[in-house]
Amino acid sequence: MTVVVLAGDGIGPEVMREALRILEKVAPDLELEEHAFGAQAIRDTGDSLPEETLAACEASEAVLKGPIGDPEFDAAEVRPEQGMLRLRAELDVYANLRPSEQGQTSILIVRELVGGLYFGERGVREDGTVYDTMEYHPTQVERITRRAFELARGRRKKVVSVDKANVLETSRMWRRVVTEVAGDYEDVALEHMLVDNAAMQLVLATDQFDVLVTENMFGDILSDLAASLTGGIGLAPSASLSDAGPGLFEPVHGSAPDIAGQGVANPMAMMLSTALMLEHGLGRVEEAARLRDAVWTTHQRGGDIRTAEFGDAVLTELS
To answer: Which of 43, 174, 239, 302 shows the greatest Cβ crowding within 10 Å of its Cβ?
Structure first.
């Protein structure tokens, strides 16, 4: 099995280095290919997602990606984030899984990733008005909903669908399609919740949730909120899945250029994303559980340790 490695920007190479150390320990037979992506790819080729890199990703079994972003390109015409959005779209990784776990709390947010406001028509009119369009087709809603219900069947069998149906036409269609799909999963409970209420309930009554399914922007916001309730985005992994091609696995946090190169970045989210890759991308459930347990055990010991020291501790747990 071939895994394409995109180290990313800022602290990306540092946290990726530790993730690869433990990956080689639990799955030494994997073939790892590193390719250019993000800010360095722009410097080298003028493109944050070179065609060679995209072709390698499409031919792989999974893509393991570090955080991207560099202040040098924040206002540039070509930015690392453009390559990220293009990679998601080209791989059609429409199902973004964002688990948030800490103690007795276990939430899974299933976010639609390749539609909605981030991919709709946008522009500037002659009068200076700026617009971004939220668009969804019923088939996009159906496939993300089915993915959420299938995942809920392996958990506590409850889905909360989050929308803004009291205001948005896209949300009214979303709610209708979700309700129709739910008829095929009578063993899973369904609740509809408006996004503003969902945000409040996540804070006030977190444990009522099992699986949340929602559109792109709502999922982007709510998943960061859920992460903050269970340790912060520095601990938050993600998996983005398609129906046929390779999945994309990456930490939720950013590239943190202010601490890059200092050896103090927390590699935990990158490691947990690697565990998600083993489980959801490569079907290696036992290896994923072993890696995840070692990471959490190391984390629970506490202490202020450096990036490589955390990797050393996890490797010790895996020995």
So the answer is: 174
